[in-house]
Amino acid sequence: MAEVSFYHLEARPLEWALPRLLTRVVDAGMRAVVVTGNAERLPFLDTALWTYDDQSFLPHGRAPDEFAAEEPVWLTADPADRPNGARVLVLVDGAAPADFALQGIDRCLDMFDGRDEAALSSARRRWTEFRQAGHAVTYWQQSAEGRWEKKA
What we know:
Elements lengths: L2 E7 L4 H14 L4 E5 L5 H10 L9 E2 L10 E4 L11 E5 L14 E7 L3 H16 L3 E7 L5 E4 L1
Parallel strand pairs: 1-6, 1-7, 2-4, 2-5, 3-4, 5-6
Antiparallel strand pairs: 7-8
């Protein structure tokens, strides 16, 4: 079973929080695949990972990148698309995995906008589905400063 962590965005937007979480994943020597629920957002996420910090960037790719297998972070709208062998799945923009069993995934990060009632409702449904599938589920809420606080 995978460890599933829900990240409730409140104070800072996804384009601020996502690169920081992904940096921790990459710094730990892991690979991630980021799945968006909206394919039109891929260019936006791509740009956010290149520009979030003017002192660095987060190496990543998306189709039609010819070096997909080498990328530490892969951006996609297809939950089955994992050309880099990622064992960390990051869900954004309401994306859900094709199979809540999470085959081959060690960790799943589900990031959702807590100020959007539809996103909040969708996250609650995913929470229930992950728990019913037997995963260990945790909840993290963003503080006013953008730090993550684990809630019971």
